[in-house]
Amino acid sequence: MTSEAKERRLADVDTKRGQLMEELEQLDLEAKRLRESLEGIDAQRAQKQYVVSTLQAERANIEATEVMESADMEVANNLEQLLKSELEEIQNLAWLD
What's the average model confidence in pLDDT over 28-44? Predict the structure, then answer.
């Protein structure tokens, strides 16, 4: 290989090296952006997991709460009225003494 051919080859290698270095810089920037994006996604996931666990706890609490049926409400209202009526009678008896 002649000296001139070696110089051309060296110039080609230097050009290729420059291109590869530029590509490496771009890849480093992309890797940095992806890492930051993943960190953001992890933070969002943690927040959403917290919300889900809070909602699950609320759901368990709600499911454990007894619910009164309309018939039960009617019985409770009738008992309340009966107790009020009994209380009035007792108060009236107290006035008689």
Answer: 96
Apex 30 CA angle, 25 and 31, nearest 5: 95
**Interatomic CA distance for residues 83 and 86, integer angstroms:** 5
- CA dist., res. 58 & res. 51, Å (int): 10
User: What is the 3-state secondary structure of the chain?
Assistant: CCHHHHHHHHHHHHHHHHHHHHHHHHHHHHHHHHHHHHHHHHHHHHHHHHHHHHHHHHHHHHHHCCCCCHHHHHHHHHHHHHHHHHHHHHHHHHHHC
Q: What is the mean pLDDT of residues 7-28?
A: 96
pTM equals 0.50
pLDDT at 84 > cutoff 70: yes
